[in-house]
Amino acid sequence: MVNIPNVKLNNDVLMPQEGFGVYQIPDYEQCKQAVKDALAAGYRAIDTAQIYQNEQAVGDAIKESNVARKDIFLTTKVWVSNFGKGTTAKSIHTSMNKLGTNYLDLVILHQHFGDYYGAYQDLEQLYGENKIRAIGVSNFNASAYNDFVKKVQVIPAINQVETHVFNQQTDLIQAMKKYGTQIESWGPLAEGHHHLFTNDTLVSIGKNHNKSAAQVALRFLVQNGIVVIPKSVHPERMKQNLAIWDFELTDDEMKQIKQLNTNRSIFF
């Protein structure tokens, strides 16, 4: 079994540094099987969202697995249509029912649109009631984040943003260090954009370690202290994505990969 290290969030909660994401797996049976395969492979963090429409499948997979709920770090994200005082809390209870749990390890606001302050107040309240172990945000750029932290009671433990070798989020990471907010990468493999899997730099470095370009790309992120949640429906690929903890990139290799940064989103 792979020994995935934890990161300590700003409220001392421990979170696995690598987890399994279920974005774009809306089919119930496929998602349930993928989560069961991921847990069997050794993943102990699962990331879903209300808008993914697969919370029920995730919950049923956890129930049918031989991994205890207490050993799984479970995240969901609140969609914009459920933002607002009272509305957000109600939607989170619905998510808990679908996920088959009476608490969540992490709940994130999915976007900074609509009444996200009202939504976050609900997260703060549920956090205070120990229904949620950690709360955070997603897709907040440095400007939005800096404004947000000055107006909330509980500093976000997580900001989940597009982060990969082509968009390394260096400015945002610096902004969040002051408050101890952990960066979590969605799209850590850039969904294959910019020919990531055949990128000359990543392939060349991979040969030094008998690793693939994808494994090098993931290793670069975790070696920079970033939490990653790669997604796959193929058990062999899941195992490959986990096989990043038995090697280390050299300072020179890290510098080479830093040169790939464009500081631009490839999705928006």
UniProtKB/TrEMBL annotation:
Question: Which Pfam family is one of this chain's hits?
Answer: Aldo_ket_red
Which stretches are annotated as coiled coil? none
Where is the catalytic site?
A: Y52
User: Source species, please?
Assistant: Philodulcilactobacillus myokoensis
Show the InterPro entries listed in the entry.
Answer: AKR, Aldo/ket_reductase_CS, NAD(P)_OxRdtase_dom_sf, NADP_OxRdtase_dom
Q: Where does substrate bind?
A: H110
Give the highest taxon in the source lineage: Bacteria
* Name the UniProt record assigns to this protein: Oxidoreductase
Q: Does the keyword Kinase apply?
A: no
Q: Which UniProt keywords apply?
A: NADP, Oxidoreductase
**Site (Lowers pKa of active site Tyr) location in chain:** K77
Q: Name one GO molecular function term.
A: oxidoreductase activity, acting on the CH-OH group of donors, NAD or NADP as acceptor
Q: Does the keyword Zinc apply?
A: no
* Similarity section: Belongs to the aldo/keto reductase family.
- Annotated NADP-dependent oxidoreductase domain ranges read 27-261
